[in-house]
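Team,

Forwarding the record for the chain on the shared tracking sheet. I've put the sequence and predicted structure together so nobody has to dig through attachments.
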Amino acid sequence: MADFNDNVISIKNIDAQTIVASGSFTTKAINVDLRKLMGNITLQVKVTGTGTAKFEWEQSNNFVPETGVGDWVKPVSGFSIATGFTATSGTATNGMDLLPLPMYNSQFFRVVVTETGGVNPIVVNAWLSMQ
C-alpha cells in the first residue's frame, strides 16, 4: 500500500445489479486523469444468489466520455480480478471480499462482471477504493 491516504476516493460502482445466468454487466468508465489516481485500487464485492461470478477489468486510452466511443482492452498482462466467486466465497464464506486491481496506467478503466455458472443469477454490489 502506498504511504499516502489523503486522496483516497470511494465510490459504489455496482448497486444491487442482477446478472442473469451467462449474462454480464459492465460498469461506467472511471476517468483516471480526472480523479488524479496515484496509487492502489481495490474492489470490495458482495455477491448473493446461487450463480457464480467472474470479475475482470478493461482499460482504454482513447475512450471519449462525451460520445461513448473508444476501444476497451483486456491487457495481455492480466485482467482477472476473481473467478468462481459465489455467495459462499470470501474469507468469511459470506460472498464478500476485498480484491486488488493491479492494472497498468491508462486514461480510463471499467469493471466487467459475468455470471459463469450458466444456470442461476447473481446479485452484485461493489465499491471501488482508489488512491
